[in-house]
Amino acid sequence: MKKIFFSIIILISYQINSCSSLKSIENTSSSNNEIINKKIQGIYSLTISFGNPYGDIDVSLELYYDKSQIKSRASYFDGQKNVPVKINNTELFEGAIFINLVDSEAGNVEMEVYFDDENSISGFYAGQFEFKGERIK
Fold this sequence. Notes:
Elements: H1 2-40, E1 42-49, E2 56-66, E3 69-77, E4 82-93, E5 96-103, E6 107-117, E7 120-125, E8 129-135
Antiparallel strand pairs: 1-2, 1-8, 2-3, 3-4, 4-5, 5-6, 6-7, 7-8
């Protein structure tokens, strides 16, 4: 009977220790998210190559946090002025940013943004037009 009692106590102690180690991993993960968040925030200049008849379009993209939510602002230069882009939503998923926006020519499109390093981004606009960009601020 004593062996069973001690075995149960050892099993319970092991489970408690396992749970506390998971909690420390969770805490580390949340602090890593804060570091990632600070590295992501900024203003980026990028060029999207659309081909004929549009050619290359210069875009300004700002990524920021508002109440712990990733947000974005974008505008493009139409040859005369900067035109703001309507952003429906912005999501961070597995290290990439997904921006759903309204394109005046194509309707709702998705923009995928990948971080090449702390100062460079690349990705796809509408799943087919590649772009590269740099952090400017």
